[in-house]
Protein backbone atom coordinates (compact mmCIF):
# COMPACT_ATOMS: atom_id res chain seq x y z
CA UNK A 1 0.00 0.00 0.00
CA UNK A 2 2.46 2.60 -1.19
CA UNK A 3 -0.12 5.37 -1.21
CA UNK A 4 -1.69 4.36 2.09
CA UNK A 5 1.01 4.60 4.75
CA UNK A 6 2.19 6.05 8.02
CA UNK A 7 3.55 9.55 7.87
CA UNK A 8 4.80 10.99 11.15
CA UNK A 9 2.66 8.51 13.08
CA UNK A 10 -0.50 9.35 11.15
CA UNK A 11 -1.96 6.84 8.74
CA UNK A 12 -2.43 8.75 5.50
CA UNK A 13 -4.34 7.95 2.35
CA UNK A 14 -2.32 9.84 -0.25
CA UNK A 15 -2.11 13.35 1.24
CA UNK A 16 -4.92 13.10 3.76
CA UNK A 17 -4.73 11.84 7.33
CA UNK A 18 -7.21 9.00 7.72
CA UNK A 19 -8.12 10.43 11.13
CA UNK A 20 -9.39 13.56 9.42
CA UNK A 21 -11.64 11.45 7.20
CA UNK A 22 -12.88 9.48 10.21
CA UNK A 23 -14.10 12.72 11.70
CA UNK A 24 -15.84 13.82 8.51
CA UNK A 25 -17.54 10.59 7.45
CA UNK A 26 -19.62 8.27 9.58
CA UNK A 27 -17.72 5.09 10.42
CA UNK A 28 -17.35 2.40 9.34
CA UNK A 29 -16.47 3.16 5.72
CA UNK A 30 -14.22 1.94 2.94
CA UNK A 31 -11.54 4.38 1.83
CA UNK A 32 -9.76 4.01 -1.54
CA UNK A 33 -6.65 5.61 -3.01
CA UNK A 34 -7.06 6.49 -6.66
CA UNK A 35 -3.29 6.70 -7.18
CA UNK A 36 -2.82 3.21 -5.82
CA UNK A 37 -5.44 1.90 -8.23
CA UNK A 38 -3.77 3.64 -11.16
CA UNK A 39 -0.31 2.44 -10.12
CA UNK A 40 -1.45 -1.15 -9.78
CA UNK A 41 -3.07 -1.18 -13.20
CA UNK A 42 -0.07 0.48 -14.81
CA UNK A 43 2.36 -1.93 -13.14
CA UNK A 44 0.41 -4.85 -14.55
CA UNK A 45 0.34 -3.30 -17.99
CA UNK A 46 4.06 -2.54 -17.93
CA UNK A 47 5.03 -6.02 -16.74
CA UNK A 48 3.06 -7.64 -19.54
CA UNK A 49 3.99 -5.08 -22.17
CA UNK A 50 5.58 -7.52 -24.59
CA UNK A 51 2.50 -9.76 -24.40
CA UNK A 52 0.00 -6.92 -24.89
CA UNK A 53 -2.83 -8.79 -23.17
CA UNK A 54 -6.44 -7.78 -22.77
CA UNK A 55 -6.82 -7.05 -19.05
CA UNK A 56 -10.38 -7.81 -18.01
CA UNK A 57 -10.90 -6.61 -14.46
CA UNK A 58 -12.87 -9.14 -12.41
CA UNK A 59 -15.94 -7.13 -11.46
CA UNK A 60 -16.89 -9.49 -8.67
CA UNK A 61 -13.87 -8.36 -6.66
CA UNK A 62 -15.18 -4.79 -6.57
CA UNK A 63 -18.11 -3.40 -8.50
CA UNK A 64 -18.10 0.24 -7.46
CA UNK A 65 -19.15 2.16 -10.58
CA UNK A 66 -16.73 5.05 -10.00
CA UNK A 67 -13.78 2.70 -9.61
CA UNK A 68 -14.85 0.78 -12.72
CA UNK A 69 -15.01 4.08 -14.51
CA UNK A 70 -11.42 4.87 -13.55
CA UNK A 71 -10.28 1.45 -14.74
CA UNK A 72 -12.11 1.94 -18.01
CA UNK A 73 -10.28 5.23 -18.54
CA UNK A 74 -7.00 3.33 -18.27
CA UNK A 75 -8.16 0.84 -20.89
CA UNK A 76 -9.36 -2.08 -18.78
CA UNK A 77 -11.95 -4.55 -19.97
CA UNK A 78 -14.17 -6.60 -17.66
CA UNK A 79 -14.69 -10.18 -16.57
CA UNK A 80 -18.32 -10.56 -15.52
CA UNK A 81 -20.15 -13.46 -13.91
CA UNK A 82 -23.75 -12.23 -13.87
CA UNK A 83 -26.13 -10.06 -15.85
CA UNK A 84 -25.84 -7.44 -13.11
CA UNK A 85 -22.07 -7.28 -13.53
CA UNK A 86 -22.45 -7.14 -17.29
CA UNK A 87 -24.79 -4.16 -17.10
CA UNK A 88 -22.52 -2.46 -14.58
CA UNK A 89 -19.48 -2.89 -16.82
CA UNK A 90 -21.48 -1.37 -19.69
CA UNK A 91 -22.65 1.47 -17.47
CA UNK A 92 -19.03 2.21 -16.56
CA UNK A 93 -18.43 2.67 -20.27
CA UNK A 94 -16.51 -0.55 -20.92
CA UNK A 95 -16.97 -1.64 -24.53
CA UNK A 96 -18.50 -5.04 -25.24
CA UNK A 97 -15.44 -6.12 -27.22
CA UNK A 98 -13.50 -5.99 -23.95
CA UNK A 99 -15.98 -8.01 -21.87
CA UNK A 100 -15.78 -11.74 -21.18
CA UNK A 101 -18.65 -13.57 -19.50
CA UNK A 102 -17.63 -16.36 -17.11
CA UNK A 103 -19.48 -18.50 -14.60
CA UNK A 104 -20.64 -22.05 -14.07
CA UNK A 105 -24.38 -21.31 -13.94
CA UNK A 106 -25.36 -18.73 -16.54
CA UNK A 107 -29.14 -18.58 -16.87
CA UNK A 108 -31.00 -18.30 -20.17
CA UNK A 109 -31.68 -14.63 -19.37
CA UNK A 110 -27.98 -14.02 -18.83
CA UNK A 111 -26.97 -15.71 -22.06
CA UNK A 112 -29.60 -13.68 -23.92
CA UNK A 113 -28.13 -10.49 -22.52
CA UNK A 114 -24.57 -11.55 -23.33
CA UNK A 115 -25.65 -12.26 -26.92
CA UNK A 116 -27.58 -9.02 -27.18
CA UNK A 117 -24.69 -6.96 -25.82
CA UNK A 118 -22.26 -8.77 -28.16
CA UNK A 119 -19.62 -9.57 -25.55
CA UNK A 120 -16.20 -10.64 -26.78
CA UNK A 121 -16.35 -14.15 -25.39
CA UNK A 122 -18.65 -16.37 -23.36
CA UNK A 123 -16.57 -18.84 -21.38
CA UNK A 124 -18.64 -22.01 -21.08
CA UNK A 125 -18.35 -24.64 -18.39
CA UNK A 126 -20.58 -27.49 -19.57
CA UNK A 127 -21.95 -29.21 -22.66
CA UNK A 128 -25.53 -28.29 -21.77
CA UNK A 129 -24.56 -24.65 -21.58
CA UNK A 130 -23.04 -24.93 -25.06
CA UNK A 131 -26.30 -26.40 -26.39
CA UNK A 132 -28.31 -23.59 -24.84
CA UNK A 133 -26.05 -20.88 -26.30
CA UNK A 134 -26.23 -22.52 -29.72
CA UNK A 135 -30.04 -22.55 -29.53
CA UNK A 136 -30.20 -18.89 -28.50
CA UNK A 137 -27.67 -17.92 -31.19
CA UNK A 138 -29.67 -19.78 -33.82
CA UNK A 139 -32.88 -17.99 -32.89
CA UNK A 140 -31.04 -14.69 -33.14
CA UNK A 141 -29.42 -15.76 -36.44
CA UNK A 142 -26.03 -15.00 -35.01
CA UNK A 143 -22.67 -16.66 -34.67
CA UNK A 144 -21.43 -16.44 -31.09
CA UNK A 145 -17.82 -16.62 -29.92
CA UNK A 146 -17.26 -18.98 -27.04
CA UNK A 147 -14.34 -20.21 -25.00
CA UNK A 148 -14.23 -23.41 -22.98
CA UNK A 149 -13.03 -23.34 -19.41
CA UNK A 150 -10.56 -26.09 -18.78
CA UNK A 151 -10.21 -27.66 -15.35
CA UNK A 152 -6.47 -28.39 -15.41
CA UNK A 153 -6.57 -30.33 -12.15
CA UNK A 154 -3.99 -28.03 -10.65
CA UNK A 155 -4.57 -26.28 -7.39
CA UNK A 156 -2.83 -23.10 -6.44
CA UNK A 157 -1.48 -23.21 -2.90
CA UNK A 158 -4.24 -21.16 -1.36
CA UNK A 159 -7.20 -21.40 1.01
CA UNK A 160 -9.48 -24.29 0.04
CA UNK A 161 -12.48 -22.00 -0.28
CA UNK A 162 -10.81 -19.94 -2.99
CA UNK A 163 -9.28 -22.84 -4.89
CA UNK A 164 -11.04 -23.64 -8.17
CA UNK A 165 -8.63 -25.65 -10.33
CA UNK A 166 -8.83 -29.10 -8.74
CA UNK A 167 -10.84 -31.81 -10.50
CA UNK A 168 -13.09 -32.20 -7.45
CA UNK A 169 -14.32 -28.61 -7.94
CA UNK A 170 -17.39 -27.66 -9.95
CA UNK A 171 -15.45 -25.44 -12.36
CA UNK A 172 -14.51 -26.11 -15.97
CA UNK A 173 -14.15 -29.33 -17.94
CA UNK A 174 -11.61 -32.09 -17.47
CA UNK A 175 -9.16 -32.60 -20.33
CA UNK A 176 -11.13 -35.48 -21.86
CA UNK A 177 -14.44 -33.66 -21.65
CA UNK A 178 -12.74 -30.60 -23.10
CA UNK A 179 -11.49 -32.52 -26.14
CA UNK A 180 -14.88 -34.17 -26.75
CA UNK A 181 -16.71 -30.88 -26.48
CA UNK A 182 -14.34 -29.24 -29.00
CA UNK A 183 -15.37 -31.86 -31.57
CA UNK A 184 -19.06 -31.29 -30.90
CA UNK A 185 -18.79 -27.52 -31.14
CA UNK A 186 -17.12 -27.80 -34.55
CA UNK A 187 -20.40 -29.18 -35.87
CA UNK A 188 -22.53 -26.39 -34.39
CA UNK A 189 -23.33 -23.77 -36.99
CA UNK A 190 -23.98 -20.87 -34.65
CA UNK A 191 -20.89 -21.12 -32.49
CA UNK A 192 -17.26 -20.11 -33.04
CA UNK A 193 -14.85 -21.80 -30.69
CA UNK A 194 -12.36 -19.01 -30.13
CA UNK A 195 -11.03 -19.42 -26.62
CA UNK A 196 -9.54 -21.69 -24.01
CA UNK A 197 -9.82 -20.39 -20.47
CA UNK A 198 -8.57 -21.35 -17.03
CA UNK A 199 -8.81 -19.89 -13.55
CA UNK A 200 -7.29 -22.06 -10.86
CA UNK A 201 -8.08 -19.99 -7.81
CA UNK A 202 -7.37 -16.78 -5.99
CA UNK A 203 -4.55 -15.31 -3.88
CA UNK A 204 -1.82 -17.44 -5.44
CA UNK A 205 1.60 -16.00 -4.65
CA UNK A 206 3.73 -18.83 -6.01
CA UNK A 207 4.53 -19.06 -9.72
CA UNK A 208 4.64 -22.87 -9.85
CA UNK A 209 0.91 -23.56 -10.32
CA UNK A 210 0.79 -21.05 -13.18
CA UNK A 211 3.77 -22.77 -14.78
CA UNK A 212 1.96 -26.11 -14.61
CA UNK A 213 -1.20 -24.60 -16.05
CA UNK A 214 0.69 -23.30 -19.09
CA UNK A 215 2.10 -26.78 -19.65
CA UNK A 216 -1.35 -28.35 -19.49
CA UNK A 217 -2.76 -25.76 -21.90
CA UNK A 218 0.09 -26.39 -24.31
CA UNK A 219 -0.61 -30.09 -24.26
CA UNK A 220 -4.32 -29.70 -24.83
CA UNK A 221 -3.89 -27.19 -27.65
CA UNK A 222 -1.65 -29.68 -29.42
CA UNK A 223 -4.28 -32.38 -29.01
CA UNK A 224 -7.11 -30.22 -30.35
CA UNK A 225 -4.99 -28.77 -33.17
CA UNK A 226 -7.09 -25.65 -32.84
CA UNK A 227 -5.51 -22.26 -33.31
CA UNK A 228 -7.35 -20.53 -30.45
CA UNK A 229 -7.81 -16.83 -31.02
CA UNK A 230 -7.85 -16.21 -27.25
CA UNK A 231 -6.05 -17.86 -24.37
CA UNK A 232 -7.71 -16.62 -21.19
CA UNK A 233 -5.44 -17.26 -18.20
CA UNK A 234 -7.94 -16.02 -15.60
CA UNK A 235 -6.94 -14.13 -12.48
CA UNK A 236 -5.61 -15.37 -9.18
CA UNK A 237 -2.41 -13.34 -8.83
CA UNK A 238 -1.85 -12.89 -5.11
CA UNK A 239 -0.97 -9.84 -3.06
CA UNK A 240 0.75 -9.34 0.27
CA UNK A 241 -1.59 -9.52 3.27
CA UNK A 242 0.95 -10.71 5.84
CA UNK A 243 4.13 -8.84 6.66
CA UNK A 244 6.42 -11.54 5.24
CA UNK A 245 4.22 -12.48 2.32
CA UNK A 246 5.54 -11.60 -1.13
CA UNK A 247 3.06 -10.71 -3.83
CA UNK A 248 3.04 -12.79 -6.98
CA UNK A 249 6.07 -12.06 -9.17
CA UNK A 250 4.34 -10.89 -12.33
CA UNK A 251 7.55 -10.16 -14.22
CA UNK A 252 8.48 -13.82 -13.86
CA UNK A 253 4.97 -14.77 -14.94
CA UNK A 254 5.37 -12.57 -18.03
CA UNK A 255 8.59 -14.40 -18.94
CA UNK A 256 6.86 -17.76 -18.70
CA UNK A 257 4.02 -16.59 -20.90
CA UNK A 258 6.38 -15.15 -23.49
CA UNK A 259 8.04 -18.53 -23.77
CA UNK A 260 4.69 -20.27 -23.89
CA UNK A 261 3.51 -18.02 -26.73
CA UNK A 262 6.35 -19.00 -29.11
CA UNK A 263 4.78 -20.35 -32.32
CA UNK A 264 1.35 -19.15 -31.27
CA UNK A 265 -0.51 -16.07 -32.39
CA UNK A 266 -3.21 -16.17 -29.71
CA UNK A 267 -4.24 -13.09 -27.75
CA UNK A 268 -3.76 -13.44 -24.00
CA UNK A 269 -6.61 -12.41 -21.71
CA UNK A 270 -6.18 -11.87 -17.96
CA UNK A 271 -8.99 -11.57 -15.44
CA UNK A 272 -7.31 -10.12 -12.36
CA UNK A 273 -9.37 -8.75 -9.51
CA UNK A 274 -7.43 -8.80 -6.27
CA UNK A 275 -4.09 -7.85 -7.83
CA UNK A 276 -5.56 -4.60 -9.16
CA UNK A 277 -7.85 -3.56 -6.32
CA UNK A 278 -6.79 -5.48 -3.18
CA UNK A 279 -4.33 -3.04 -1.67
CA UNK A 280 -6.23 0.05 -2.82
CA UNK A 281 -8.46 0.37 0.26
CA UNK A 282 -8.65 0.37 4.02
CA UNK A 283 -11.76 -0.05 6.13
CA UNK A 284 -11.94 2.66 8.77
CA UNK A 285 -13.73 1.73 11.96
CA UNK A 286 -14.27 3.06 15.47
CA UNK A 287 -13.77 1.18 18.72
CA UNK A 288 -17.13 0.99 20.48
CA UNK A 289 -16.20 -1.01 23.57
CA UNK A 290 -13.19 -2.65 25.11
CA UNK A 291 -14.30 -5.57 27.16
CA UNK A 292 -12.23 -7.81 29.42
CA UNK A 293 -13.46 -11.34 29.78
CA UNK A 294 -11.86 -14.62 30.84
CA UNK A 295 -8.41 -13.08 30.82
CA UNK A 296 -8.87 -11.77 27.31
CA UNK A 297 -9.34 -8.31 25.98
CA UNK A 298 -12.01 -7.93 23.30
CA UNK A 299 -12.01 -4.79 21.20
CA UNK A 300 -15.49 -4.37 19.75
CA UNK A 301 -15.50 -2.40 16.50
CA UNK A 302 -18.38 -0.71 14.73
CA UNK A 303 -17.45 -2.69 11.58
CA UNK A 304 -18.69 -6.25 11.44
CA UNK A 305 -18.50 -9.37 9.32
CA UNK A 306 -21.38 -8.05 7.23
CA UNK A 307 -19.13 -5.16 6.14
CA UNK A 308 -16.02 -7.30 5.66
CA UNK A 309 -16.73 -10.97 5.26
CA UNK A 310 -13.30 -12.35 4.32
CA UNK A 311 -12.07 -13.22 7.83
CA UNK A 312 -15.27 -15.13 8.65
CA UNK A 313 -15.54 -16.76 5.22
CA UNK A 314 -11.93 -17.62 4.39
CA UNK A 315 -10.05 -17.19 7.68
CA UNK A 316 -8.43 -14.25 5.93
CA UNK A 317 -6.10 -11.93 7.79
CA UNK A 318 -6.28 -8.16 7.45
CA UNK A 319 -3.65 -6.23 9.34
CA UNK A 320 -5.11 -3.79 11.85
CA UNK A 321 -3.48 -0.38 11.72
CA UNK A 322 -4.40 2.38 14.19
CA UNK A 323 -5.02 5.72 12.52
CA UNK A 324 -2.67 7.29 15.05
CA UNK A 325 0.44 5.37 16.00
CA UNK A 326 1.86 5.54 19.52
CA UNK A 327 4.72 3.69 21.12
CA UNK A 328 3.00 2.56 24.30
CA UNK A 329 2.18 -1.12 24.12
CA UNK A 330 -0.59 -3.15 25.71
CA UNK A 331 0.23 -6.39 27.49
CA UNK A 332 -1.28 -9.66 26.36
CA UNK A 333 -3.43 -10.63 23.42
CA UNK A 334 -6.26 -8.55 22.19
CA UNK A 335 -9.01 -9.78 19.95
CA UNK A 336 -10.65 -7.48 17.43
CA UNK A 337 -14.29 -8.40 16.90
CA UNK A 338 -17.40 -6.91 15.30
CA UNK A 339 -20.83 -6.24 16.77
CA UNK A 340 -22.68 -9.00 14.87
CA UNK A 341 -24.42 -11.80 16.72
CA UNK A 342 -22.17 -14.57 15.41
CA UNK A 343 -19.03 -16.01 16.97
CA UNK A 344 -17.35 -15.94 13.56
CA UNK A 345 -17.60 -12.15 13.64
CA UNK A 346 -13.97 -11.69 14.57
CA UNK A 347 -11.18 -10.03 12.62
CA UNK A 348 -7.92 -10.99 14.30
CA UNK A 349 -5.98 -11.55 17.48
CA UNK A 350 -3.03 -9.24 17.94
CA UNK A 351 -0.02 -9.39 20.24
CA UNK A 352 1.86 -6.35 21.46
CA UNK A 353 -0.68 -3.96 20.06
CA UNK A 354 -0.39 -0.30 20.96
CA UNK A 355 -2.51 1.19 23.73
CA UNK A 356 -5.99 1.98 22.48
CA UNK A 357 -9.19 3.18 24.08
CA UNK A 358 -12.88 3.37 23.32
CA UNK A 359 -13.62 6.02 20.72
CA UNK A 360 -10.26 5.52 18.93
CA UNK A 361 -10.15 4.66 15.27
CA UNK A 362 -8.41 1.78 13.56
CA UNK A 363 -8.25 0.54 10.00
CA UNK A 364 -8.28 -2.90 8.41
CA UNK A 365 -5.70 -3.06 5.62
CA UNK A 366 -5.92 -4.38 2.05
CA UNK A 367 -9.70 -4.61 1.86
CA UNK A 368 -10.22 -3.37 -1.71
CA UNK A 369 -10.92 -6.81 -3.16
CA UNK A 370 -13.88 -8.89 -1.98
CA UNK A 371 -14.55 -6.34 0.75
CA UNK A 372 -17.50 -4.18 -0.20
CA UNK A 373 -18.56 -6.61 -2.94
CA UNK A 374 -19.12 -9.40 -0.40
CA UNK A 375 -20.87 -7.22 2.17
CA UNK A 376 -24.46 -7.77 3.22
CA UNK A 377 -27.31 -6.32 5.24
CA UNK A 378 -27.05 -9.06 7.86
CA UNK A 379 -28.37 -7.97 11.26
CA UNK A 380 -30.30 -5.34 9.26
CA UNK A 381 -27.29 -3.08 9.01
CA UNK A 382 -27.02 -0.63 6.13
CA UNK A 383 -24.37 -0.98 3.43
CA UNK A 384 -21.54 1.33 4.41
CA UNK A 385 -20.10 4.22 2.41
CA UNK A 386 -17.15 4.15 0.06
CA UNK A 387 -14.83 7.17 -0.07
CA UNK A 388 -12.17 7.87 -2.66
CA UNK A 389 -9.06 9.95 -2.04
CA UNK A 390 -7.07 11.56 -4.83
CA UNK A 391 -4.14 13.69 -3.72
CA UNK A 392 -5.58 16.08 -1.15
CA UNK A 393 -9.17 15.61 -2.29
CA UNK A 394 -11.76 13.19 -1.03
CA UNK A 395 -15.28 12.33 -2.11
CA UNK A 396 -18.06 9.83 -1.56
CA UNK A 397 -18.14 7.27 -4.37
CA UNK A 398 -20.99 5.29 -2.86
CA UNK A 399 -23.29 6.71 -0.27
CA UNK A 400 -23.97 4.86 2.94
CA UNK A 401 -27.38 3.17 2.61
CA UNK A 402 -30.00 5.16 4.48
CA UNK A 403 -31.87 3.58 7.37
CA UNK A 404 -35.10 4.51 5.62
CA UNK A 405 -34.09 2.61 2.51
CA UNK A 406 -33.00 -0.35 4.63
CA UNK A 407 -36.16 -0.45 6.72
CA UNK A 408 -38.57 -0.10 3.80
CA UNK A 409 -37.12 -2.98 1.81
C1 LIG B 1 -12.94 -14.61 -9.24
C2 LIG B 1 -12.48 -14.81 -10.62
C3 LIG B 1 -11.41 -14.06 -11.12
C4 LIG B 1 -10.64 -13.06 -10.29
O1 LIG B 1 -9.83 -13.66 -9.35
P1 LIG B 1 -8.71 -12.81 -8.55
O2 LIG B 1 -8.10 -13.79 -7.65
O3 LIG B 1 -9.42 -11.73 -7.82
O4 LIG B 1 -7.76 -12.27 -9.55
C5 LIG B 1 -11.06 -14.25 -12.44
N1 LIG B 1 -11.70 -15.14 -13.23
C6 LIG B 1 -12.73 -15.90 -12.77
C7 LIG B 1 -13.40 -16.85 -13.69
C8 LIG B 1 -13.14 -15.76 -11.46
O5 LIG B 1 -14.14 -16.51 -11.00
Write the layout of secondary structure elements.
Elements: E1 4-7, E2 10-13, E3 16-17, H1 18-24, E4 29-33, H2 34-47, E5 54-58, H3 65-73, E6 77-80, H4 83-91, E7 99-101, H5 108-116, E8 121-124, H6 127-139, E9 144-149, H7 175-186, E10 191-197, H8 208-224, E11 230-232, H9 250-260, E12 267-270, H10 274-277, E13 281-293, E14 296-301, H11 310-314, E15 320-322, E16 333-337, E17 346-351, E18 361-364, E19 385-390, E20 393-398, H12 403-407
Parallel strand pairs: 4-19, 5-6, 5-12, 6-7, 7-8, 8-9, 9-10, 10-11, 11-12, 14-16
Antiparallel strand pairs: 1-2, 2-3, 4-13, 13-14, 13-18, 15-18, 16-17, 19-20
Helix pairs in contact: 5-6, 8-9
Short descriptors:
TIM Barrel, 409 residues, 28% helix, elongated, binds pyridoxal-5'-phosphate, Lyase, Ornithine Decarboxylase, Chain A, domain 1, 12 helices, 20 strands, alpha/beta, 8-stranded parallel beta barrel, 9-stranded mixed beta sheet, 2 domains
Task: Describe what you observe in this structure.
Strands 4, 13, 14, 15, 16, 17, 18, 19 and 20 form a 9-stranded mixed sheet that branches. Helix content is 28%, strand content 24%. Strand 19 (385-390) and strand 20 form a beta hairpin. The relative contact order is 0.16. The radius of gyration is 23 Å and the shape is elongated. It folds into 2 domains: 4-32 and 278-407, Beta Barrel (Lyase, Ornithine Decarboxylase, Chain A, domain 1); 34-276, Alanine racemase (TIM Barrel, Alpha-Beta Barrel). It has 409 residues and is of the alpha/beta class. Helix 5 (108-116) packs across helix 6 (127-139) and helix 8 runs parallel beside helix 9. The model has no long low-confidence stretch (mean pLDDT 96). It has helices at 18-24, 34-47, 65-73, 83-91, 108-116, 127-139, 175-186, 208-224, 250-260, 274-277, 310-314, 403-407, and strands at 4-7, 10-13, 16-17, 29-33, 54-58, 77-80, 99-101, 121-124, 144-149, 191-197, 230-232, 267-270, 281-293, 296-301, 320-322, 333-337, 346-351, 361-364, 385-390, 393-398. The protein has 12 helices and 20 strands. The structure holds pyridoxal-5'-phosphate. Pyridoxal-5'-phosphate binds at residues 58, 60-61, 79, 102, 199, 202, 234-237, 271-275, 369.
Amino acid sequence: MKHIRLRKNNLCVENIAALKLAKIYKTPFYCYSLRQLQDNYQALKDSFKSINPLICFSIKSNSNIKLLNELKKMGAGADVVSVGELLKAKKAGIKSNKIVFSGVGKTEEEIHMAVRKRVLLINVESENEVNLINKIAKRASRKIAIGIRLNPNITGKTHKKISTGGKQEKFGLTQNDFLNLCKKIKKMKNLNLEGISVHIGSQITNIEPFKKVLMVINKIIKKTQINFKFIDLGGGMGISYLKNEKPMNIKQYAKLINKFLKNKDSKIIFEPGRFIIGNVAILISKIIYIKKSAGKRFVVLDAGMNDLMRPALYDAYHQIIPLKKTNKLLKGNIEFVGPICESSDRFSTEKKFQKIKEGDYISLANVGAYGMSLSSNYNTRPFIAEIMVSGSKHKVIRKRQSLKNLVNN
